[in-house]
Amino acid sequence: MKKLALILTLLASCSAWAQGDAEAGKAKAATCAACHGADGNGIMAQYPKIAGQHAGYLEKQLNDFKLAMSTGGAQGRNDPVMGGMAMPLTEQDMADLAAFYASLPISDNTTAESSIELGQTLYRFGDTERGVTACTACHGPRGNGTSLSGFPKISGQNGEYVKLQLEKFRDGQRGNDMNAMMRAVAAKLTDDEITALSQYVGGLH
To answer: Residue 174's closest CA among 61, 58, 12, 10?
Structure first.
């Protein structure tokens, strides 16, 4: 019953977003290009690739950035830069931007050879002895996530960005994950495991 309730909650949250217009989003994306690039693939490794990401996920993040700013960080996702960018956006603006970036192709990426063994083991199987859930359970075998359930695409993502987010989940600096699922997993990961996973998903196809 708990699993069913979670699935229904996820579906309901994703269906609540406005219908986005990719062409309108393109016209509104000029300022986003400064960090995410004109093609949505980021200009530096610590910035996320948002090209090809699920529109519902992108829209949720923008809403969460705005929520954190309006609640003084008590809710949502704290990030001073993104919070400031999201504050003036309307619900339709967010939907349009999400639709635009979701329509773009993500650029290719690779996995460091040194991270394949550990990263692949954790991604595929987790660690049952420590209660670490396999990443594939939510993000899928190829890291594509699922748009309906709200799990993001992580394949091809910048490794440095993934590393920063896992560290934030582990340290409690980021808390906008559904039912604290990412915080529960990240809390059990070592620095070496976070590095291996971050680099592994970058080259996952």
So the answer is: 61
Annotated binding site: 32, 35-36, 82, 135, 138-139, 182
* Structural Rg of the chain based on CA atoms: 16
CA distance linking residue 180 with residue 98, whole number of Å: 24
Q: What global pTM score does this model have?
A: 0.90
Say how far apart CA 43 and CA 46 lie, in whole Å.
9
The runs of H, that is alpha helices, within the chain are: 2-15, 22-28, 33-36, 55-70, 80-86, 91-102, 116-125, 136-139, 159-171, 181-186, 191-202
Q: Which of 75-79, 112-116, 164-168 has the lowest mean pLDDT?
A: 112-116
Domains of the chain: 22-33+43-103 (1.10.760.10), 113-203 (1.10.760.10)
Residue pair 63/75 in contact by the 8 Å Cβ criterion? no
Residue ranges at the known binding site for heme c: 32, 35-36, 82, 135, 138-139, 182
